[in-house]
Design brief:
The complex is a heterotrimer of chains A (about 290), B (about 350) and C (about 375). Chain A is mostly helical. Helices cover about 70% and strands about 5% of the residues of chain A. Chain A contains eleven helices and four strands. Chain A is globular and about 60 Å long. The termini of chain A are far apart. Chain C has two domains: about 1-135 and about 280-350, 3-Layer(aba) Sandwich (Rossmann fold); about 140-270, Response regulator (Rossmann fold, 3-Layer(aba) Sandwich), CATH 3.40.50. Chain C is about 45% helix and about 20% strand. The longest helix of chain C has 20 residues, at about 300-320. Chain C is globular, with a radius of gyration of 21 Å. Chain C starts with a helix and ends with a strand. Classes of the chains: A mainly alpha (about 290), B mainly alpha (about 350), C alpha/beta (about 375).
Chain lengths: ~290, ~350, ~375
């Protein structure tokens, strides 16, 4: 029972990170390796806002989210926009390069030493239900993830910019012909995606209150997997993918403690099997491959 | 230019390279030699991954995994039983690996073959899985390898890795393998196979309609590419004298992908030159971390600056040399001949 | 293009030419990459030591510090570079045994003295006459903690949580289990032996399994300090009340900073404590460090400091800057460092006492010293 609760709360953490990833991925079709590092920058900005400038906690968080959104837009302008007409691998390597740049920037400017992320009292509580214990942060994470998905679905389905994003995700040229401002829409997508990265960074850091320049690597790679398993461009899929990943991460060692070392191998083996049998992910539509 | 002349010129070049190797082994500064060895290994990796990613357009993130297989398989074969004994002090090595020792050359070949088998296994799902999904399958593969190697203590010694490997790797080995890699892959690329591979890259469906056997060709690219990755792994292990599963992580694959992109996708010359250049650049960039004395003012070295500058340089190259530094310019004897002719005109 | 080339040559030239009278000591640490924290802390110790003793045998010491970016290929290249280009007579090595071993191999092969400040893996010095270390090794540390658990804490059963991708963690977990089973005489006394993967931030799965087995103590030889803080935090949140034991990786201020009240009452072994009264040099060192960096020194700066001082001591006694002479002088070292008395055994590993520490009221507290013999 406790294992199940652990699994669900970790699943939603991964899911929340994956949603931001899937958004950018779905619209721009870019495997953004720098997403995890944008996530890291978000955490640092909040850290500095609250510890160094003494912002109140909530203000620091909002400040961090806004700055991270700006950072995301900036990265897109500098590193991805000029490469849009070139093969996919160019922007991909560009995102790897960006990821290196952000990490090394963080090492030089913030230092390689771990810092502790401020956690407000409200989030520190543990709820005890009989045998089972739940962190209050987990509950906030779950509520928030669902809210975020609902909000995103609303933006995508009901607003003009959401419509533009959906058209972009199928074809750039068509979108342009339909009079959509491609650059602006993509900028907006990156702003939204990066803001989501910052939001997930908040919840991640609340749960695991240590921040360091390489903290983005692990959630970043998990988000990548979750988004791909969930299916291209599917927000719901990303949440479910992240959720499944969290379940596996917790339940595998729980079920087979003596083989706990093999967890990663098992997770990836399952992944490969899923992809071989469902090559478009769990919730992906059948799309023709376009270079 | 006649084919005979070209072959002759190539032979002369190879002999010239070996003369250079002969003198370098005797007189060159060991540090430079070491970097050169590393660079040549990067070159082998670059060229072999280029066959998969550049020529065939199959986006693979599994190269580090193939290397790991090659490195371990060969190291376990060429290490002496005594060294193995001292390595496996926690969990003993399974029999008969603990008694076998075979010459370096054959060990490397076996390592390459093992990697090729893995390449076949990974290449097979290619028929169903494409694009980013293939990337994640291959990434998954290299993580599985890493996880298995961390856990199978009675074969790989787990995360402790293998230490004290004998140093066989020298310029003779690395140069020879680089030449073999380049020749083999060049031959494949120029053959009908190569044209089929490029057709698959440009339009898979059209290629299939033309009667190209997708499965056979994609798997071929994977098998050959991973064979040479395995070889490079074996050479690297012996150069470093120690290997452990965690040095073959996804970060290593990223480095190789950078090398092939900077050299130009599908450009063998580019991969070789950038591979070697990369190793030297990383060392040369160290000067930025040294305390500097410019116009009489002491600047303290800022630690970590080197990697920052490296990533900035990387971004600039990606953004401004979009076809890679070499673009589509391949080394060819015709090109050299043209260069000479131009010079003559100038005179 | 030619100008650029000239510039490059000039720089290369600048780097290689040092005044002949300098004694060159090479330093290599991971200043970037995953182990950057360990490397940066070690560097502080070196910097302090160099400020105090910048000359030996009446000649200036030239420190050459190179980053190995937490990468094995680089760490091998860096040591070669220190030896070949800078003509270092001795090298003070890197944080992390995995990074240290390739460098140690190369230094030994080139007959250059190599001193490791904090690599605890037995293989670092094994069969390498030029390689020394000023810290204890994992088998000793694992035994010490098992001894402490059984004798001081009266534990009959234990659970072990370790990082399967970290050589240090796997080794220490192994030695602890070995010693614990021997001391209790019960082959089933280690009730849970469960792994996680470096990079994990969530240990609830492992901890819930531990909770079910209900051991007397939990031993967690983690790879990096943050993992320890999070393990403690999540254990307390899951309602585990057992004492948690750890190794030297726990000994960093980040433990309390990140773990908060959850790390109260953890016990770990280390090699240095500001209050352990290891030698009369400890106090001035701690004061100086506090003044400079505004925090208490952990074992990493202390050991790096000692490694430098032991080397200088050996150079003085050898009265020579020849690696062979320094190596011989090192054998007979008996030096009072800030982390206690340092002598070397026949494997060139330091014979050292282990310091047991705990956290009380958000502060590190010294518990006891377990003798090394």
């Amino acid at each position: 029972m406790q294992h199940l609760v652990n699994a669900i709360s970790l699943g939603f953490v991964f899911g929340l990170v994956a949603v931001g990833y899937a958004l950018v991925y779905g619209v721009v079709k870019l495997v953004n390796f720098a997403h995890g590092d944008v996530f890291m920058m978000g955490a640092y900005m909040m850290f500095y806002a609250s510890v160094l400038f003494g912002f109140p906690w909530l203000a620091a968080v909002i400040f961090g989210i806004a700055l991270t959104a700006l950072l995301g837009v900036g990265i897109e302008k500098v590193a991805y926009r000029p490469l849009r007409k070139y093969p996919r691998i160019n922007s991909l390597v560009s995102s790897i390069g960006m990821s290196f740049l952000l990490q090394n920037f963080a090492v030089v400017v913030f230092g390689g030493i771990q810092r502790s992320f401020p956690v407000p009292e409200m989030m520190k509580k543990t709820i005890i239900l009989g045998e089972v214990r739940i962190q209050s942060v987990s509950i906030y994470t779950i509520i928030f993830s669902i809210l975020v998905v609902l909000l995103l679905t609303f933006i995508l389905q009901k607003t003009r910019i959401g419509l533009a994003m959906r058209i972009l995700s199928t074809d750039f040229e068509t979108a342009r012909l339909m009079g959509i401002n491609v650059d602006r829409t993509i900028s907006f997508t990156f702003a939204l995606g990066s803001a989501l990265a910052a939001v997930s960074a908040v919840f991640y850091a609340l749960r695991y209150p240590q921040i360091f320049p390489f903290m983005g690597q692990y959630p970043g790679s998990r988000a990548f997997i979750a988004a791909v398993v969930g299916g291209i461009g599917s927000i719901k899929g990303a949440l479910v993918g992240g959720f499944l990943l969290g379940m596996l991460t917790v339940l595998l060692p729980a079920a087979f403690p003596e083989y706990s070392g093999y967890r990663e191998a098992l997770i990836f083996a399952l992944l490969v099997i899923v992809l071989v049998f469902k090559p478009n992910g769990l919730f992906g539509q059948e799309v023709g491959e376009k270079a | 230019m006649k084919r005979r002349t070209k072959i002759l010129l190539s032979l002369i070049l190879i002999i010239a390279i070996y003369v250079f190797v002969y003198f370098s082994e005797l007189y060159m500064d060991p540090f430079i030699k070491r970097i050169l060895n590393t660079g040549l290994i990067y070159a082998i990796l670059g060229v072999s991954l280029n066959l998969i990613n550049g020529f065939t357009g199959q986006f693979s993130l599994g190269h580090a995994g193939f290397m790991a297989i090659g490195a371990y398989a060969s190291a376990l074969l060429y290490m002496s039983p005594e060294t193995k004994m001292s390595n496996f002090f926690m969990v003993p090595l399974i029999s008969p690996l603990d008694r076998i020792q075979i010459p370096f050359f054959w060990a490397i070949i076996v390592g390459g073959l093992m990697a090729a088998v893995a390449g076949f296994i990974v290449g097979a799902p290619c028929l169903r899985v494409r694009g980013d999904y293939l990337a994640i399958v291959t990434y998954g593969f290299s993580e599985i390898i890493r996880s298995l190697f961390n856990n199978l203590q009675n074969i790989t010694n787990g995360p402790l890795g293998l230490k004290g490997l004998p140093t066989y790797t020298n310029l003779w080995w690395t140069v020879s393998w680089t030449i073999i890699t380049v020749i083999v892959i060049k031959r494949i690329v120029d053959s009908s196979y190569g044209r089929a591979l490029k057709a698959i890259r440009d339009d898979e469906i059209a290629a299939e309609n033309l009667g190209i056997n997708l499965f056979k060709h994609k798997v071929l690219a994977f098998v050959v590419g991973s064979f040479f990755a395995g070889i490079a792994g074996g050479l690297l292990g012996s150069l470093l004298m120690t290997i452990d599963p965690n040095s073959f992580s996804i970060l290593f694959t990223y480095q190789i992908i950078m090398i092939i992109l900077l050299g130009g996708l599908g450009n063998i010359t580019g991969s070789v030159v950038v591979g070697i250049g990369f190793a030297f650049l990383m060392e040369w960039l160290r000067f930025v971390e040294m305390p500097m004395n410019i116009f009489g003012i002491e600047f303290p070295g800022i630690l970590g600056m080197r990697m920052l500058i490296f990533s900035i340089l990387l971004m600039v190259t990606i953004l401004f040399f979009r076809q890679g530094i070499f673009g589509k310019v391949e080394f060819s004897w015709e090109g050299v001949a043209r260069l000479f002719q131009k010079k003559k005109v100038k005179e | 293009m030619r100008k650029l080339l000239c510039f490059v040559m000039l720089l290369m030239g600048m780097l290689t030419i040092f005044a002949a009278s300098d004694i060159v000591i090479g330093i290599t640490q991971p200043l970037t990459g995953n182990y950057a924290m360990g490397g940066q802390l070690g560097m502080r110790g070196i910097d302090m030591a160099y400020e105090e003793v910048p000359t030996v045998l009446g000649r200036p010491i030239k420190l050459v510090k190179l980053d190995n970016k937490s990468d094995k290929i680089e760490s091998a290249n860096v040591v070669t570079r220190l030896i070949e280009q800078y003509k270092a007579v001795a090298i003070i090595g890197t944080y992390s045994s995995a990074l240290g071993i390739p460098g140690a191999e190369i230094a030994n092969k080139n007959k250059v003295v190599y001193i490791s400040p904090s690599n605890t893996n037995p293989l670092v010095t094994k069969d390498k006459p030029f390689v020394y270390r000023v810290c204890f090794i994992d088998p000793f540390q694992g035994t010490v903690m098992a001894k402490f658990a059984v004798q001081n804490m009266k534990a009959k059963t234990a659970a072990v949580i370790y990082d399967v991708s970290n050589d240090y963690s796997v080794g220490l977990a192994y030695y602890f289990r070995d010693a614990f089973v021997k001391l209790t005489g019960n082959p089933k006394s280690v009730v849970t032996y469960i792994a996680y993967q470096g990079g994990d931030q969530d240990f609830t799965a492992q901890l819930t399994a531990v909770k079910r087995a209900n051991p007397d103590v939990i031993f967690a030889p983690i790879g990096i300090v943050g993992d320890g803080a999070l393990i403690a935090k999540q254990a307390r949140e899951l309602g585990l009340k057992q004492p948690i034991l750890g190794g030297d990786t726990w000994d960093l201020p980040q433990l309390v900073e990140i773990g908060g009240s959850a790390v109260e009452g953890v016990y770990y072994s280390t090699m240095f404590d500001v209050k352990a009264d290891l030698s009369d040099k400890t106090k001035p060192f701690v004061e100086k460090y506090r003044a400079k960096y505004n925090e208490d020194p952990g074992y990493l700066p202390a050991l790096a400091y000692d490694a430098y001082m032991v080397l200088i001591d050996a150079i003085k006694r050898a009265n020579s800057d020849k690696p062979e002479d320094i190596r011989r002088a090192l054998i007979t070292t008996d030096y009072m460092g800030v982390s206690g008395r340092i002598r070397f055994d026949q494997n060139r590993d330091a014979i050292k006492d282990a310091v047991i520490k705990t956290v009380r009221n958000g502060k590190f507290e010294f518990v006891t010293v377990i003798k090394g013999d």
